[in-house]
Amino acid sequence: MYSVIIKKWDLDIIEYQEEVKVILLNRANIVLGIYEMSKGGISGTVVDIRIILGVALKCNASSIVLVHNHPSGKLVPSEADKAITKKLKDASNLLDIGLLDHIIISRLNYFSFSDEGIL
What we know:
Blueprint (H helix, E strand, L loop, with lengths): L1 H5 L12 E7 L5 E9 L9 H10 L4 E7 L9 H16 L3 E8 L4 E3 L7
Parallel strand pairs: 3-4
Antiparallel strand pairs: 1-2, 1-3, 4-5
């Protein structure tokens, strides 16, 4: 997913402003689209679970991937990152929408909650 999303990211601001995007996928894991959730400041931005799930329902997405960048370039998830992942996973399960991953990206690399077994 990193190769898909990095092409859609403004690399001029990836190290200056935090952004959140959601990759929407169908049952065959084909990308239906990428929703630009929010842009924030240097150390944070808004992640609204209701908006994410509303968009997923409107797009008839079977699953989603949450993606955000850390302007610092450090790919270690914060406690807030872990909390929002758990909250989104629990809420999406109620609607039978799979949360496949939460990916933190930088210009050159990424951290995957799924790959690390913490999703």
